[in-house]
Amino acid sequence: MESWAPDRDEDRDADPGYWRSHVLLMSPREMNFGQLDGEPEEKHKKAKTVLAWAADCIDTEVLQEIEQSQAEDIKQAWRDAAEAERTQRKIKQFAETPPDTLDGWQRLDADHDAVRVAYVADNHGTPSVAAVFEAAGGVLKAREFTLDAWNENDGNPRETRLNRYCVSTDGDGAFTRLRSHLLTFEVEH
User: Fold this and answer.
1) Superkingdom of the source (predicted)?
2) Which of 80, 116, 165, 187 could lock 104 by a disulfide, CB 3.0 to 4.6 Å apart?
3) pTM of this prediction exceeds 0.70
């Protein structure tokens, strides 16, 4: 769009760079059919620039492709939002009522008062415990420990050496990280 400048006189000041100067005021998001920013007069100039450019450079077939692409992007955004909402509901349900089993992990009856919930399984051949517990200062953390280290410390996650962190791409929060961890690793029980 930056290299375009129509060779016509309509709505053009004496300056031959009239259209180009308006294009350069636009952000990449605005040029890619985003919402135009600025004061009403500035938006009007930008809109006229986009329309003039489109009339000169885009044929009906290209416009239909753009429209189809935009429609697909919108549909995908809705699908992604719906999936994210489903995941958040599952996370909330997991935090409120942890299941007895989840993807091969078995719920562990943890005796330590800091433990909110713990699961046990063989993770890559190593008997492991993944737990949400209250750390110093009352902060909830999600961590994985080897079962041997867990037992050596009487199930005290504050004293047990860490085997690995629980991480998630589904958001923050200890239960979110634990649930994601349990669903990520293929385990044996």
Assistant:
1) Archaea
2) 187
3) no
